[in-house]
Amino acid sequence: MNYSAASIVALVGICAAASAQSINPDFGGCYSIRDLGTPPGVPTPFGGVTFKHDDPDLMLLGGAANAASGAIYAVRVTRDSEGIINGYAGPATRFADAPNIDGGLTYGPGNVLFFTRFSTHAIGQIKPGQTTMAKSVGLTPIFQGSTGSMQFVPAGYPGAGRLKVLSYSVGLWADINYIADANGTYDFPAPANTIIDISPIRPEGVVYVQPGNPGFTKHSVLICDYSGGKVDAFDIDANGDPILATKRNLITGFPGPEGGTRDPRTGHFLFSTFLGNRLILITGFNTNCAANLVPDCGVDDLDFQVFAPAYNILDCADPTMPAGCPADLNKDGFVDDADFSIFVVAYNGLICN
Ligand SMILES: [Ca+2]
Ligand SMILES: [Ca+2]
Ligand SMILES: [Ca+2]
After folding, report:
1. Label partner for 199 (CA 20 to 30 A): which of 62, 91, 222, 224?
2. Would you state the torsion angle of the CA atoms of residues 56, 152, 162, 283, taken in this order, to the nearest 10 degrees?
3. What is the pLDDT of residues 130-160, one digit of tens each?
4. Ligand 3 centre from 334 Cα, in Å?
């Protein structure tokens, strides 16, 4: 038989895509992969991704990543009847210049939009309502290589508000300081508070995950590993830094995973790819479901069997209470009717699935 070159290329592409992508079954079989394809009108390759701080349906995506012509593009997402992102409402519009944008793109204090710059090893900043970079600060005095990525630890997590910056080219994770300047932007004084060698990971997108998501019993962080074509999960410590010994692979088989974020409406994990120029949605995450005490796909009697004895003990300080007092869903030091009310809502499937 004769195959055209084009059909062979297509066939190889299909086989590679079909055979390689997988989710680690240790996470309970609750997650699934949805390839959202390539949003129209965003120059490739793709960089960081986030959502506009005041519009949970407006995705912001880095285009022409790493290039001087790099910019952030706004893409309105569409959702199915369950609220799951299923596509794009139309072509992208240019949102702001972001020269050399890499895998980091996130809002910070004052709704300043921060992005990492490769290979200039810097953080760029865009002020609210502006369309150009107001400031760029080099990171060479702080750590080696070039960013890479960045993320602020969200509210409700250990280390909330701390800033993490990642070196792509050396595989480093750094906790750094930030202070407001006089112009509504920020400086990053050296030295770093902590530098952790996470190589051979070549880090891009970083997102935090609460306990109660399937397979997660502790506050955790996901790191896109560009070179490994995978995303790894780590428990975090009191500063929001990854505990290396807890590393678990979440997904594999995605060439060039780049920026990452969580859908503000559903909590699902969304990441871009620098190779292939796609957006991949991992469904099965939730926004906050502490009641999922047995962290499988939902809240049911198994979770109640953990909740009930803690309710009977009441006081988180009681030595018989399970470590960390996970049934204290509102984190006030006691497992009481207030927690039960939260549990019931989750049991009825209203927030966890
Ligand atoms: Ca990159
Ligand atoms: Ca459960
Ligand atoms: Ca409580």
Report:
1. 62
2. 80
3. 999 999 999 999 999 999 999 999 999 999 9
4. 4
